[in-house]
Amino acid sequence: MRIALVGNPNSGKSSLFNYLTGLNQKVGNFPGVTVDKKIGYFQISPKVKAEVIDLPGTYSIYPNSKDEKIVFDVLGDKANPSYPDKVVVIVDASNLKRNLLLFTQIYDLGLPCILVLNMMDLVRKAGFAVDHVKLSKTLRLPVVPVDARKGEGIDALKKTLAESPNDPLEPIFDAGSYAPDAVKAVKDVFAIENDYQAYQRLQQYRINSNLTSDEKSRVESIAAQHGFNKDQLRRTETLERYAAINEFIRQVVTETSTVLPKHWTQKLDVVLTHKLLGYLLFLTILFLIFQSVFAWAEAPMDFIDLSISKLSSWFSEVLPVGVFTDLLSEGIIPGIGGVVIFIPQIAILFAFISILEESGYMARVVFMMDRIMRKFGLNGRSVVPLISGVACAIPAIMATRTIDNWKERLITIFVTPLMSCSARLPIYTIVIALIIPDEPVLGLLNLQGLALMGMYLIGFFAALGSAAVMKVILKTKERSFLVMELPTYKMPRWANVGLTMYEKSKTFVLEAGKVILAISIILWVLASYGPGDRMDAAEEAIRTENVTLAGEELENKVSAHRLEKSYAGIFGKAIEPAIQPLGYDWKIGIALITSFAAREVFVGTMSTIYSIGGTDDETTVKKRMQNEINPDTGLPRYNFATGFSLLIFYAFAMQCMSTLAIVYRETKGWKWPILQLLYMSALAYVSALVAYQIFN
Known about the structure:
Oligomer: single chain
Number of strands: 11
Helix content: 55-70%
């Protein structure tokens, strides 16, 4: 049995979906669009298994976004592959008037419906009572009260789902009586039985994904022939529906207390959405969240890093010497580590985002930030991914799914990697230490600390500027409206928080991980092999020339020269003419190539190239880099101009295959990741070139 779960945003639909399906979920996408399709499974009875489709939240089957359009595409055409056997419409019982509009529209489509009244506890607290038994008799269909956050009423819902559906009922809005000729013509041409389905085909044929161009033309001619005035009829429909809804409410809703308590949500909103205090509190919360992400993720990430390193060493020791062992210990296992090591950050960050959403606070943030972000082609929902990008662009880009408007979501995805993530910190730290003196400013601040803060500000303003440019470039007919409800504040449902952490981590590992692992193997091959016997010849020459050296010092020197003669080294030499105007040599060129896997690889590559591969001591790496001489000038290679050029390059460059993989996953294609790579690489190159030429 296929069941569609439908409801307004913030009606508790996701909580109900999680309770019904638990961990038995998967995420795909609806055909032809980049909208996520969440599917789950559960056992209704020993012999009946249910597939639940969690449709996007919407206030009406007349869509304002691509997400909302999915609802009518699925429910309005029996030929749709996701067309359900039954529809569960979940409504916020504390706001029946608004929620029942969508229900009456789905009711008239003639689908077997079950009405679920959620948040009954809020109804009682507000001093009202809803007679669900009387409502069921009035509508002549099952009405089930539940508390989706606590799981109450789920068994009753499953029992109701197992029962046979009711017979077709009289419509709430009789479309056939308002446009009889047009509706009848559409029913005859398309073999549609339901009047309201035919009426909706007349209303929405232009945006109906289920119709071909010829079919749309036929509907258009029918509408013109019979004088179908869709705007006037839609106004009539809305008025008639609300008249019916008011009558339902009058019959089933009663007041249980003479003095209604003033809701504490309103008191909190006075502070949390204040024009000044609201922003200060939000920034404080963000500061605490990202401090927690950095602090809490450090230990598990270090543990994963150490475990992967030990596992790699163990395989290299126990397996026979050979290409397969090298591939496993130096390519595949580190590649897996490059995937798994991000899980703590993703899980912790999405745990906080889930808590903010579950509590109702995230809606307030979106509301406050919308006016500011809209000036740059974004909307209020863009602020969460942008700020999240300070920790890691991967979970930040995944968080853009809350943005309904595709243009604004795409711009957010495009510019989020410009926010300085934690992977840039090792580069910023070592290069700033090379070119900025460690001196106090105003007796309190540190010059190097101010430089580090400046790098984060550069990333933030670059993201806003790029968004403003894309706002002009991207043309779309889709208009953006921030239509949302500010839900009441609630205690987070910890089971849902846990499910969110699990789902986001699993999605990253399974989807982005495949691409990351493949590129890791390719990078290993490029750094481990070279044409002919050039690498072996280089090793033999080094060992012959340095007979006085031994142990780790000799091996580091050998490794550095083998790297120079590898394919990666050849690429470094090949791009040297292009990067020389930036103040870089072939050694930095190799680091640019290898750090494409992850930006933080830059420091490790520098260690290997400068024969410091056996130590993790950043001071030693820094000292070696300070001593590096430019053979053309006889001066230090890492002067202020070169160092600042490097900082600017890594602030803007897309040196992270993990981010590209997740952009591919979120946009369902390679078009936007490739454009993003080209744009950010060009921005990084030109900006670094200008910086070097100015300060050199």
